[in-house]
Amino acid sequence: MAGLRSANGVDLQVNIGALRFRNPVMTASGTFGYGEEFAGLVHLHRLGAVVVKGISLEPRPGNPPPRVVETACGMLNAIGLENVGVEGFLRDKLPFLREMKTRLIVNILGDTAQEYGRLAAALSQTEGIDGLEVNISCPNVKKGGVAFGTDPLMAAEVTRSVRENTTLPVIVKLSPNVTDIVLMARAVEEAGADAISLINTLTGMAIDIQTRRPKLANVIGGLSGPAIKPVALRMVWQVADAVRIPVIGIGGIGTAEDAIEFLLAGATAIQVGTANFYDPSACEAIVAGMAAYLEEQQEKSVRAIIGSVRCSMV
Ligand SMILES: Cc1cc2nc3c(=O)[nH]c(=O)nc-3n(C[C@H](O)[C@H](O)[C@H](O)COP(=O)(O)O)c2cc1C
């Protein structure tokens, strides 16, 4: 990638492992389809990266409807990881993504640690994929359905399985549904992750008081959107302080101001999720707003502000 500067001359490039991104703004998995769905609405080449919907070994139909519900300042979803499967992805989705002139990160999910490894191997045999993001907020079928991302040993096992099967950069995406996020971050760093992204959705529920039934067919879903931003920011700040690998901040980011908060807290890059649904131009506006902020702050590079929050009371 050529040395890319924004229109006002500010350098927005960031590095994650060996990968250079033209700017720190990425789409969050599951909220941007396979990229193609947004191609008529967003200039994909202006984004730092597109992270696609989670891919499993076999296609999955997902959960029955209703699968999405609006909540105060957010939404609950129980899509159930519907996707076309790895073969369908490579055959039908990758050809478009390869041409889009921005970084492509493929999000993966599995039922066992071995499945994650097989997926990593399958996705590493082809050109055009720049990195893997490992969704560990999935049930481990061998351990009675406990999510991989809630146990440091299981999270490390998945990370190792992916690491051993690919030379691509491995980003492990943490679940916030834990007591100690730093413990999880350290476990995946030690197991070979090149970067950590966080947070995935927080588990939640909503009830229709007239029918006295849960609003989601699955009863429980994942909460996302502006409502979760303070929780996400706190976790990003804690993790960025505790690990040596880059951190990608996710959770309720809809504006440049939101994104900048995450960078100040220590994130090297950020992802935009739910905001894509109510404002498809959000990612591009964030890139422009970030450049304007840096110019106003007389910073020549976005890298200068990463982790520069002043927390001391003196
Ligand atoms: C409808 C929907 C589908 C999602 N699917 C995935 C997925 O397949 N894999 C994944 O790792 N995260 C998935 N997520 C989580 C998002 O990538 C993101 O971590 C979360 O929504 C928090 O960011 P936000 O508040 O900006 O939406 C999904 C979120 C939503 C709302």
* Oligomer type: single chain
Tell me the strand percentage band. 15-25%
Large-scale geometry = globular
Summed up, the helix count is: 8
SSE order and pairing:
Elements: E1 14-16, E2 19-21, E3 25-27, E4 49-55, E5 68-71, E6 74-77, H1 85-98, E7 103-108, H2 113-124, E8 131-135, E9 139-140, E10 146-147, H3 152-163, E11 170-173, H4 181-190, E12 195-198, E13 202-205, E14 207-208, E15 213-214, E16 220-224, H5 229-242, E17 247-250, H6 256-264, E18 269-272, H7 275-278, H8 282-296
Parallel strand pairs: 3-18, 4-7, 7-8, 8-11, 11-12, 12-17, 17-18
Antiparallel strand pairs: 1-2, 5-6, 6-16, 9-10, 13-16, 14-15
Bound molecules: flavin mononucleotide (FMN).
